């Protein structure tokens, strides 16, 4: 690993999706290991603000609402703030044109990015972007981290305040039922498992307490899945929790079942058993969970799968077989296997 010298100020650029932000935390932790007395700031979007606010290794944030304000004026305002802070080192896991442009204009003399980034020439240290490894491994290569077997498996960390934990406990059942969180949403339609209604029915029949989680964009979906159930069996907290509150909830539940999305990575941070459900995407893209109580389920053997790294707004061939053919019993079996595995480890 590259050892940094004292007195340097570091900026990490990560303005991608929430899950990508979470998977940047191991990189930040190793930067802090290399430079324990240094300053590490993060340029990010408002949606990912809490990911970095509650990291014990981040000093400050620069917010860039690129989705709401795409103007050059907004871009140059961010660049001006970066230049005023006089960063000596910059690391960009994000490979977009905009991130590379910000890096170029940052004023930082040392700029690390990927060889496959748009405008990669702006980086005077380029790490190989290897599609065959996990996203965390890819990011760690930006700091020259020497991988040794599973040494890259560093878990995201959050500092959770007591008042947050108190709030979360108010949602938990008074009964002795095991609590299973479900995250049925995703930005992409073809990443949303279409048979969560069957999973919920089977879980409740087996006397589990179900909590649905998600962002404000998932409220309608979670409300429809909640219809017909009483609050002693199921509640929906979609749109009601902040990011860090969602992490705190996962700390207090027995397992998570989720699509290939950000809650999977939150569960890794809390060592919560997690079943990661893949529809149109595949684990080989490098975003699978690697915690000890984690499992991936997927319906494979389809010529059309995967149909894209992010998924689509609709199935390109109108069948969505990767979702519909995945048996809910397989998902519940994997969840129960993980619960037993964790119980035996205690």
TrEMBL record:
One of its GO terms (cellular component) is cytosol. InterPro entries: Glyco_trans_9, LPS_LOS_Heptosyltrfase. Keywords: Glycosyltransferase, Transferase. CDD domains: GT9_LPS_heptosyltransferase. Pfam families: Glyco_transf_9. One of its GO terms (molecular function) is ADP-heptose-lipopolysaccharide heptosyltransferase activity. One of its GO terms (biological process) is lipopolysaccharide core region biosynthetic process. This is ADP-heptose:LPS heptosyltransferase II.
